[in-house]
Amino acid sequence: MIDAAAPSYPAWLERFVHEAPLMQVPEDVPPVAAGGRRAAVLILFGDGPHGPDVLLTERAATLTKHAGQPAFPGGRIDPGDDGPVAAALREAQEEAGVVPSGVDVLVTLPELYLSHSEHLVTPVAGWWREPSDVAPGHPGEVATVARVPIAELTDPANRLTIRHPSGLRLGPAFRVGGMLVWGFTAGLLTAVLTAGGWDRPWDPGHVEDLPPEVLSLSFGG
């Protein structure tokens, strides 16, 4: 849905704001299981030193789930949260130091089911009207916070398809900001780039195995 009270935003976000609520759930996303826990993530767009960008975090290697994986700031919707928007803003503040008052919420995207952790995730997109300094807020949960330029995400040289060493294809991936972005976040980023009209042709036939260190954190070796 579009936030009727949303203030102005840059022209480069106009197509995304109108197309994002119409995004289709990818065919490879499993159906929602009964009892899935509700969560929210913040897709935060800004005008950074290298042009339009989006905020990503890298989860700590010590976590029991999604350890070491790049992600959008986010987490479970707590009982005290007034829905997914409030949860996404709260989590972005706790994880990365984003000041909620400097963010204009643009749209909420269709819910996605994250089967590995059994979460029903609502992506919330926002415009970073007044950027704040960011840094990992929870050392035990967040290792890195980075503003990644959209131009880097759309550069065909930074895109690839990741597979498990068993041969199972795990989906699209990005090498940006010193991170390998894959899994749920890469899939959502791919849909976001398409909705915004920023996507560029790239070679999905460029396939690489998930690196051993990432494999160990994500699948236990």
Provide the helix percentage: 10-25%
Secondary structure tally: strands? 12
Rg for CA atoms? 16 Å
Oligomer state equals single chain
Order of helices and strands: HEEEEHEEEEHEEEHEH
SSE topology sketch:
Elements: H1 14-19, E1 37-48, E2 51-59, E3 70-71, E4 74-76, H2 83-96, E5 103-108, E6 112-114, E7 119-128, E8 142-149, H3 150-154, E9 159-163, E10 169-176, E11 179-181, H4 183-196, E12 207-209, H5 212-219
Parallel strand pairs: 1-7, 9-12
Antiparallel strand pairs: 1-2, 1-4, 2-3, 2-8, 5-7, 6-7, 9-10, 10-11
Q: How would you describe the overall organization of this protein?
A:
- By secondary structure, the chain is an alpha+beta fold.
- 21% of the residues lie in helices and 33% in strands.
- The chain has 5 helices and 12 strands.
- Strands 1, 2, 3, 4, 5, 6, 7 and 8 form an 8-stranded mixed β-sheet that branches.
Write a brief caption for the model.
By secondary structure, this protein is α+β, with helices and mostly antiparallel strands.
Keywords:
single chain, 221 residues, alpha+beta, four-stranded mixed β-sheet, 5 helices, 12 strands
